[in-house]
Amino acid sequence: MGEEARRGFMRAAVGKGRPGGRGLPRIGWLRIATIGIVVWAVAAPFRSAGGALAPEELSVEEPSVEKAAMRLTLRRLPDPEEGWTKGLVVGSFFGGTWPTPQRVSGIAQSPAGPQGSHGQTQSHTGIFTGPYLGYNFMDDGLRLSRDGRWKAIPGLLLIFNYAEMSSSALSYDSSSATPTASSGSSRTFLPEIGGVVLISNPTRFVPFLGATAGVALSWTSGISVVGSSGEELVAPGQTVFTYAPSTKVLAGVAIRIVPHWNWILGYATRFIAPTSSTVEGLHPDTVASLTSRTGWYQDFEGLVALQYDFGTLRQQPTMP
């Protein structure tokens, strides 16, 4: 190859490396552009995520009055169920009785004819217990204050009362200075219906007044009658059944323990109508039978009860 040809080849080779040259530089720019596109495509999602965390989008929106009220409503305890369960109450009670003396009269049938006597019987302290079911007419209360926070709410009660007590009596006849002594123990089942008025208010103390009416069904056993001369007059092992109308007035206070649960503290006075009973004599040739009539029976009662109410005894305050 000549000298001129060799110089031309060198110029051509050197020209390929210049910026304006062709070949290799064109391939380099293409690689750079491709790498840039790939990097942009990979970084684009991260740029979007970063945009969501922009400072202007991190500000906390202040809740509106409507939203705050809605949140308060959701956090508040639910209102009592509507319908008949709203005023339903159930409970169980226990108490003691303090009876007053009763007038008593008797007639002994003997071969010589009937012999009368009269005197007084004293029942001893007894106990009673039982369940009850009630309904308070919550929506029919009478306002006692202008704002409606105090109301008189009527209610109905169904009571099943079981009582036990013992009694003793002394009676006198006209022919003997020595009294006749008698004793026995009785068990009484007393179903009652009653009405109450609750003084509902915003506090946990709800006073009430009421009255009941029912029938006292009594079984008296262990009957013993000792005559004026000291002899037993009644055949042993006899049980006497009696029944009589009964009425009671009561008052007390319901004390809220926790929602729906209440302690009831109460006081009552009971009246039972006069009764009559007859027992067979131990010696028919002396006394064939004894008939006893008692006067009005009255006692004083104290009781405590645990009550569950499905609604509430306290009304929500209302605006005047």
Short descriptors:
transmembrane helix; membrane; alpha+beta; Porin; transmembrane; OMP/PagP_B-barrel
Structure description:
The protein is α+β, with helices and mostly antiparallel strands and 320 residues long. The chain has a domain at 91-309: Beta Barrel (Porin). The chain is built from 3 helices and 13 strands, in the order αααβββββββββββββ. The chain has helices spanning 3-15, 24-52, 65-75; strands spanning 88-99, 102-109, 115-123, 126-136, 142-143, 151-173, 180-200, 205-226, 240-258, 261-272, 275-280, 289-294, 297-309. It has an 8-stranded antiparallel beta barrel. The protein is elongated, with a radius of gyration of 48 Å. The N and C termini lie far apart (121 Å).
Low-confidence stretches: 13-24, 52-60, 315-320
Let me know the average pLDDT.
Answer: 81
Distance between the termini: 121 Å
Task: Give the second-level CATH assignment, the architecture of the domain at 91-309.
Answer: Beta Barrel
**Class of the domain at 91-309 in CATH?**
Mainly Beta
Helix-residue proportion: 10-25%
Number of strands: 13
Biggest sheet details: 8 strands, antiparallel, barrel
Structural class of the secondary structure composition? alpha+beta
SSE pattern: HHHEEEEEEEEEEEEE
Shape: elongated
- What is the CA-based Rg, rounded? 48 Å
CATH fold naming of the domain at 91-309: Porin
Strand order of the largest sheet: 1-4-6-7-8-9-10-13
Helix tally equals 3
Strand content: over 45%
Transmembrane segments: 28-46
Keywords: Membrane, Transmembrane, Transmembrane helix
InterPro entries: OMP/PagP_B-barrel (IPR011250)
